Request: fold
Amino acid sequence: MSILGVTQRTLRKDLRLEWRSKDAINSMLFFALLVVVIFSFAFDPTAEESRHIAGGLIWVAFLFAAVVALNQTWARELRNQVLDAYRVSPAPATALFLAKALGNFLFVVVLEALMAPLFVVFYNLRSVGPVYQLLVVGALGTWALVVNGTFFAAMSIRTRSREIMLPLILFPISIPALLAMVDATTSILTGSASPAFWIRLLAIYDLVFTTVCLSLFETVLNAE
Amino acid sequence: MKKTFPIFAIATLGLLSYALYQALVVAPTEVTMGNVQRIFYYHLPSAWVAFALFFVNFLASIWYLAKRTAGSDALALASAEVGVVFCTIVLLTGPIWARPVWGIWWTWDARLTSTLVLWLIYVAYLMLRRFASGGQTPVLAAALAIFGFVDVPIVYLSIRFFRTQHPQPVIGGGPGSGLDPRMWTAVLWNLAAFAAYGSLLVWTRYRMAMVERQVEEAHAQRALESNEGAEQ
Reply:
C-alpha cells in the first residue's frame, strides 16, 4: 500500500475512534476552558490590556490543551500491542507518523475553533489588524506544536513517567515557535507591527521540523 | 593510554593555575568596570567550551544513529553533561558581572535569552536520558539531540528579531572592542585552560559511562548464567 493509502486509512481510523469516544477533544476543551477562566482571574485585564496579552494567553492555553491530546496519541496504540504490530508490518513508518500528526492537527484546530469565540467573549477582544492573518498564524503555529508533539509523544511513551516527559522535551524545543505565534498574534490584534517576519519564521520552523520528524521517525519507532 | 590521562590531568591543572594568574594578576584592571570585569576571563571561555561541547554532542549523536557504537553514545552523554555544566557557569557568572555593571541581574537580551534557551534544551536532553528506560535510551536521546541542535539557529534568529524590535533596557558596555593586548593574552590562556579542563571532564565522564555499561553487561550476563544454572 502506498504512503498516502496508509496515512489516509490510519487517519480515518483515528478520527472514527475519536468521533465515537470524544476522549481527546473533551479533555482538551475542558482543560482549555479552565485555563481561560483561571487566567482571567489571575490578570483581570481591561479590553486594551487584554489585546496586548491575549496572544500569550491564547497560545499558552492551546499549548497546554494540546499536550493533553498529544499524550493520548500513542497510548491508544499500546493496548493489545498495536504499536508492535505496526512495527512488524511493512507499512511505511512515515505514513503512520503523518496520520497521527494530521489527526492531532485536526483535533487541535477543532479545539481552537471552539475556544476562539470564548476568548473573544471573555476578554472583550477585537482585532485591529486583519483577521485572516490570524488564520495563517493559527494553522502554521498549530502544525509547529503538533508535528514535534506527535514525535516527542512517541518518544515519551517509552520512558518512565510518560505523561510528564512530553512537555519537558516539547516546550524547550518549541520556544522559537511559541515566540513567533505569540508575537504574530499580538501584532495582528494590536495592529502595531507587521507579523510577516514571524509568519515566515513559523513556516521555516514547520518545514525544518517536519523534515526532521519524517526522517527520524522510523528510527525512533524501531528503537529497542 | 593509561599514562596519558594523569599526564593530561596534571597539564590541565598547570594550565588552569597559569590562566588564573593571567586573569587575576597580569591582565590590567578595566577602567570603568574595575575588577569585576575579570570574571569575563571565565565567562567567555566557558561559553565557547559549552557551545563546542553541544556541537560534539550533535556529531556524536549522528554518529550513533549511523553506526550504533557504544562509544559515540557515551561521548554524546559526556559532552552534553559537561556542556550543561559550562553553560550553567556562563549563566551564573553573567549576572554576577551584570549586577554591578548594568545595575540588574538579568535582562531578556538576545544573547542572554538564547543561552538560557540553549541550556533548557540540553537540560531536557539530560532529563530524557534519565527517564528513558533500557536499551532504547541512546536512540531516543540521539534523536532529541538532533532536534535540539537544529533548533539552535531558529532560536537565535527569533530572539534576535524579538529583541531588536524593542528598545534595549540597558546598554551593555561589553569589552568587545579595543581589548588591551594583555587582556587578550589572559583571554587566550583561559580559553586554552578551559578547553583542556572541559576535555578532561568529558574524558572522565566518557570513561565512567563506558565502565557503567560494562558493569551492566556483566550483571546481565551473570543473571543469564544463574538462570541457566537454575534450570539444569
Remarks:
- Chain B touches chain A at residues 65, 117, 120-121, 123-125, 127-128, 131-133, 135-136, 139-140, 143-144, 146-148, 150-151, 154-155, 157-159, 161-162, 165 (CB under 8 Å).
